[in-house]
Amino acid sequence: MKKPTSSDQSFSLSNIRFPLFWQMLLAMTLVLCLSTGALWGYLQLNFTDLMQKQTDTFANTITHQAANSAAEMLMADDYMALSAMLENLVRTSDNILSISVQDDANNTVALALGAVLEQPLKQSLGPILGPILKMPLIQEDQAASISSSSDYQADIIFHKVKAGSIQLSLDNSAISASLKKTLRALGIILIGIVLLAIGSSILIAKKLTQSLKQLQTTTQQVAKGNLYPTLPNVKNNEVGDLVKSFEHMLQGLRDKESIEHKFSSFISKDIAKDILSDLNQEKKPLKSVTGSVLFVDIVGFTQLSENQSPAKIADILNQYYSLLHQVSKIYWGSVDNYIGDGAMLTFGVHVDDPKHTINAICAAQLFIRLSKAFNQQRIENDLPALGFRLGLHCGDMLAGAIGDKERMQFTISGDSVNVAARLCDLASPNKLMISESVYHHPACHSLLITEPSENFSVKGKAQPINCVNVTGLAPRFNRLLMQQENELKVMQEYV
Length: 495
Fold this sequence. Notes:
With 495 residues, the chain is α+β, with helices and mostly antiparallel strands. Helices cover 54% and strands 21% of the residues. The chain is built from 14 helices and 13 strands.
């Protein structure tokens, strides 16, 4: 088995989805925790230093005051007075473990014990305690039992001569307990602040990501064609600015769709999309395409126009063009141009369609079927029936805009267009005439029912063109055409 390489691993890690909500929450929580930890450390150091300085100040003040007061008593060997002074000092503070006076030979001449050490020492020393104690202040085993204490010393000076010293042992346990209590309360406050900040971060991140999710849903709706989605109600922040920009984009899409819809009322929808695909380009270059061109016109339209009012003629043309539009849309074609009573339909020109030839034939045959129903309705209304000629050719042609900057026209041109127009002129009423290139197209092989081919001389061609009249299609196509005919009849106003 192949082991994954480092590049494969990095690729897989880069594809891991990490929601924005959790990214924001993790970042905020990390920043809060680091900031709180730094603040906690800073406050702890400062509080500890402050308490230690206060303790040192208190102890040094007592020792120096005691040293000043004990000078004369020590020189007078008034040990009772010294002991009384020390006892008074011990009573003034619960933090004093012991305080003693030592002479110049480092002998303890007076001693006072705090409440913490008084009873243990009395029990251990018994009768040895007296006005003068020739022993260390605290025994080793008892000193080990004191977990937190500080020792201070001040020299007893009498007329600039050292007569002895004051030894002070201060209990730090109360101070430590007070410090711990203060830090504990501070820690609780900081934890509360962190929890409150994390809760606020969750709400902010949730609100922000919720708005982004709504905008994502809106984007998906727009991608599906809905240009009137419900936008998130966000204001006065960057997400609100994003929503406004998105709304402006939507308005641009709506305007473009409206223009395209109105534009498509005058020209083919496919042509409208092609023109509107790049509005900044003044003139689209002509491009060579391969497709099929179908020409349709009304037989005897000139004579018909002489006997009908303009309103009647307009009504006939509208129904006729409606039929052409429906059949072209079914078979991916486009009505490119209306020329009086004639129309030019293209297949495979604006939309890539490898079967453009057979689609053009099916569209023509479907139109012929619908025209029969159209004429039947006219006969029932005591109106003359109309005949239609259809000509189809396939080949290379040019598609694009021609004209100048003041007036442009999107059109299809080339020899294939001219041949299709000539075939339409030669076609019999209600018949489709196709060229030999259409007849021999691979997509049409064995699918057409035709009359014998004929050679026709056409304008613009030195050699005659071999043409074929199509009378029908293979059975499977006929069934499809019948189904489409019935569906379209329901949609037509004349039914």
